[in-house]
């Protein structure tokens, strides 16, 4: 039976180790975090992902998998350690090379090393030469190295690890084919074989594409705000064009990937990445814009009521919907900025993170959805978690609701009459209501002309 060492048991490494073990491989999971190792071996992993406990239990029970801090000999090594950026937005590859140093202590003839961590173009080749220099083994003859980027969607990882197509880029043909054989053990999607550099760049281009499209949605939202238009309705209508598909604006871009990976391209191609840099800056500025909007609306809310204090409930703190991951979360940075504001009593509702894993400054502010909705004067939608989508309208009917993730938006059905049109326009927001009054004469003229030719 082939033996696999998965190095780095986080959001990518642990599910990958489990899926490989379920496919019949003998898998050892390695991490430097002793607490994480102990939790995994007791079947209570610290990361949250649907079905992870059941799958982990199965592979622990069959003894196809265990976790340890000690590197062991194996046929395949998968590196899935973090690749954040440093202060100056340059890739921090220290975790990758620290893992590689440890692997070099057990690497032997015939072994294969797969880099799954997202890295700047050229890193896999440098890694291969680094391993060769440490071991005296010859790359391509004695051992094989390839990059195989990961594309899974947190929340659906166990399915996507199997069904997603994979790109496999070896540093030579032999490496590519060795690694393709490995993924054949558990991937039912197509395997596309290419060079290491193309595989590295494909991953970075995919995430930069997402980042640029999100930045476009955020700029549309900013323009809509200035024009007093509901951005979600605007985008919904623009998307009725058969070849337009604008994304939904959110409160910003976070997580470990989309907010980070474009900088790896900027680092390597400083002259050819103007659009990517601009998109990064737009998306990084979005939380600041959200904070400014919330402060303005709360000041207005207080003025109209003649009060000095406002109880504010924030819905969602994670970096995106239906995950427990707070890393680089724009919602969390918004919450932190509001924490410092006088005259705001802050409450947060984050159903995916238990109090134990919340940052300390929010532990005493965490409330259940029902408690938060009943206590708050103003509610802000930051992350579109599933439980928030079914909030009963009567629970928030007399509250001010500010929506930065499309929670309140109901998609347009075909509107043929003036009445249907105006009932479809959300008017729960004072700012939009006021602005709609300003544009009503124009709206009437257009509709009457079109409706009564
Ligand atoms: N999370 C995602 O959705 C996702 C998707 C695609 C690609 N990626 C990429 O995959 C890589 C891993 O991401 P992640 O989200 O799983 O990170 P993570 O932080 O959840 O997990 C990484 C793990 O590696 C461990 N680690 C660090 N250095 C180590 C070492 N020298 N030896 C052993 N273990 C070590 C850490 O303790 C941690 O448990 C990153 O490059 C990321 O960009 C992540």
Topology of this structure?
Layout: E1 3-7, H1 13-22, E2 26-30, H2 34-41, H3 52-61, E3 65-68, E4 76-79, H4 94-104, E5 112-115, H5 123-135, E6 144-147, H6 157-163, E7 166-170, H7 173-183, E8 191-195, H8 196-227, H9 231-238, H10 261-268, H11 274-305, E9 310-315, H12 330-339, E10 344-349, H13 360-363, H14 369-375, E11 378-381, H15 386-389, H16 393-396, E12 400-403, H17 418-424, H18 430-451
Helix pairs in contact: 1-3, 4-5, 8-9, 8-10, 8-11, 10-11, 11-12
Bound molecules: nicotinamide-adenine-dinucleotide (NAD).
Bound molecules: nicotinamide-adenine-dinucleotide
**Annotation field: number of helices:** 18
- Taking the alpha carbons of the first and last residues, their distance comes to 77 Å
- Contiguous runs where pLDDT drops below 50 for at least 5 residues: 424-428, 434-453
| Biggest β-sheet description | 8 strands, mixed
C-alpha-based Rg, rounded? 25 Å
Quick one: how many beta strands?
12
CATH class of the largest domain, named Alpha Beta
Predict the CATH topology of the largest domain.
Answer: Rossmann fold
Residues in helix, %? 40-55%
Estimate what percentage of residues fall within beta strands.
Answer: 5-15%
**CATH architecture classification of the largest domain:** 3-Layer(aba) Sandwich
What is the CATH homology-level superfamily of the largest domain?
A: NAD(P)-binding Rossmann-like Domain
User: What is the topology, as strand order, of the major beta sheet?
Assistant: 3-2-1-4-5-6-7-8
Question: By helix and strand content, what is the structural category?
Answer: alpha/beta
From N to C, what is the helix and strand string? EHEHHEEHEHEHEHEHHHHEHEHHEHHEHH
Domain count: the total is 2
Calculate the mean pLDDT score and round it.
Answer: 91
């Amino acid at each position: 039976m082939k033996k696999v060492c998965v190095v780095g048991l986080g959001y990518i490494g642990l599910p990958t180790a489990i899926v490989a073990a379920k496919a019949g491989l003998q898998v050892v999971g390695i991490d430097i975090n002793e607490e994480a190792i102990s939790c995994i071996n007791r079947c209570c992993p610290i990361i949250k992902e649907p079905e992870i406990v059941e799958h982990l239990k199965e592979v622990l029970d069959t003894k196809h998998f265990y976790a340890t801090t000690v590197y062991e000999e194996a046929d395949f090594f998968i590196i899935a350690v973090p690749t954040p950026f440093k202060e100056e937005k340059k890739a921090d590859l220290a975790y990758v090379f620290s893992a590689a140093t440890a692997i070099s202590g057990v690497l032997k003839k015939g072994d294969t090393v797969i880099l799954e961590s997202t890295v700047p173009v050229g890193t896999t080749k440098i890694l291969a030469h680094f391993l060769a220099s440490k071991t005296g083994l010859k790359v391509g003859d004695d051992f094989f190295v390839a990059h195989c980027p990961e594309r899974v969607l947190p929340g659906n990882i166990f399915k996507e690890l199997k069904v997603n197509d994979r790109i496999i880029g070896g540093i030579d043909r032999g490496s590519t084919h060795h690694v393709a054989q490995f993924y054949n053990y558990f991937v039912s999607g197509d395997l596309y074989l290419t060079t290491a550099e193309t595989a590295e760049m494909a991953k970075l281009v995919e995430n930069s594409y997402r980042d640029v499209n999100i930045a476009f949605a955020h700029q549309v939202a900013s323009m809509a705000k200035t024009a007093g238009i509901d951005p979600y309705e605007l985008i919904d209508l623009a998307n009725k064009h058969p070849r337009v598909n604008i994304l939904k604006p959110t409160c910003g871009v976070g997580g470990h990937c989309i907010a980070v990976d474009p900088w790896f391209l900027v680092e390597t191609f400083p002259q050819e990445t103007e659009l990517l840099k601009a998109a990064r800056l737009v998306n990084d500025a979005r939380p600041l814009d959200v904070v400014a909007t919330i402060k303005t609306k709360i000041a207005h809310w207080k003025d109209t009521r003649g009060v000095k204090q406002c109880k504010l409930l924030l819905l969602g703190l994670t970096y995106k919907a239906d995950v427990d991951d707070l890393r680089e979360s724009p919602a969390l940075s918004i919450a932190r900025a509001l924490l410092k504001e006088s005259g705001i009593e802050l409450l947060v509702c984050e159903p995916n993170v238990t109090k134990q894993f919340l940052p300390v400054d929010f532990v005493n502010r965490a409330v259940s959805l029902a408690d938060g909705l009943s206590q708050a004067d103003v509610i802000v939608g930051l992350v579109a978690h599933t439980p928030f989508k079914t909030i009963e309208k009567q629970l928030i009917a007399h509250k001010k609701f500010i929506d930065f993730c499309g929670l309140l938006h109901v998609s347009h059905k075909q509107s043929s009459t003036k009445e249907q049109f105006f009932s479809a326009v959300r008017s729960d927001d004072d700012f939009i209501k006021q602005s709609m009054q300003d544009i009503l004469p124009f709206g009437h003229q257009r509709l009457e002309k079109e409706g009564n030719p």
